[in-house]
Amino acid sequence: LMLVISQYDNTNFASYRQGWQQLDAYQGKEVVLKQGDSVITGIACGVNDKGALCVDVEGARRYFNGGEISLRAAP
After folding, report:
1. I want to staple 40 with a disulfide (CB 3.0 to 4.6 A). Which of 33, 47, 61, 65 is the partner?
2. How does DSSP classify residue 4?
3. How far, in Å, CA of 74 to CA of 21, rounded?
4. Strand stretches in the chain, DSSP E
5. Closest CA to 52 of 44, 42, 40
């Protein structure tokens, strides 16, 4: 873990994206995203090169990052 943290400044998230995608338990599943008072339902599509969460919402890809986000599998 310390090696990853020490290399992050030079590589940024993009170099870790593929590994993230392989371990992403939500990818391809219906999820509920809560951000403040907003509730968004869609299909999780992984993350982009900057680490932003990608969710397919009614056929349109939306990206979420920063702030407080709660992600849950849809019931």
Report:
1. 33
2. H
3. 19
4. 30-35, 38-47, 53-57, 60-64, 70-73
5. 44
The whole-model pTM stands at 0.73
Q: Which residue has the tokens 């969460």?
A: 53
> Of 47, 41, 74, which Cα lies nearest the Cα of 63?
47
In angstroms, the CA 75 to CA 4 distance is: 35
Sign of CA dihedral 10, 16, 17, 20: negative
Q: At a CB cut-off of 8 Å and minimum separation 6, what does 69 contact?
A: 33, 34, 35, 53
Instruction: Give the span between the Cα atoms of 8 and 14, in whole angstroms.
Output: 10
Residue 34, amino acid: K
pLDDT digits (tens, 9 = 90+) for 15-48: 777 877 888 888 999 999 888 888 899 999 998 8
